[in-house]
Amino acid sequence: MIKLYWSPRSRSFTTLWLMEESGLPYERVLTDISTGAQKAPDYLKVNPMGKVPALSDGDAALGEAAAICAYIADRYPETKLAPAVTDPRRARYLQWLFFSPSCIEPAIIQIFTKIEIPTSTAAWGSATQVFDVLEAELDKGPWILGEEFSAADVTIGSGLNFAVRRFKMVPSRPAFDAYLARCMARPAFQRAETIAAG
């Protein structure tokens, strides 16, 4: 049985949404970060960073939301959450799957902390560049790969949900609003949001 270690109102939302999209049976293991449960020795065996989310699946264990999304989509191809390794769309899928943790999240931190970092040294360029590039891609819609929803939409949609809708750290744009509306209309998103609320 797949076990998803999660905590309410946390980054666990991404993986809750992914698991709900997958249709796979899984057990949710509440890991109450307000009590320090993520630092317990047994939990650190699953995720040495002591963060949520984390996932175990038989002998496999991993942390990091995008990695969990990639693992489930690849390990269980019947979920149809990723193009096959031989599919040319796989390259764009991988780029956008990891865009949220490698570009959106650092851009949000840059906005929140108001840190000035030269674009030539910041791996994500600048917050403006991140959201301009994402807007141009989402304008093509309806999903990041066109007509086909994928795990990359889970990571991108979760990042935008956090940055634009929930915490309003990034100004709304028409392409973001339309994309988020499509994400929020998905039954799996709605179930995940109910679960994540605790």
TrEMBL record:
Instruction: Show the SUPFAM superfamilies listed in the entry.
Output: GST C-terminal domain-like, Thioredoxin-like
Gene3D superfamilies, per the entry = 1.20.1050.10, Glutaredoxin
Which is one Pfam family of this protein? Answer: GST_N
Keyword terms:
Transferase
Query: A GO molecular function for this record?
Result: transferase activity
Boundaries of every GST C-terminal domain copy? 86-198
Q: Which residues form the GST N-terminal domain?
A: 1-80
**Which InterPro entries does the entry mention?**
Glutathione-S-Trfase_C-like, Glutathione-S-Trfase_C_sf, Glutathione_S-Trfase, Glutathione_S-Trfase_N, Thioredoxin-like_sf
Question: Is-annotated flag, keyword Transport?
Answer: no
The protein here is known as Glutathione S-transferase
Name the species this protein comes from. Answer: Bradyrhizobium betae
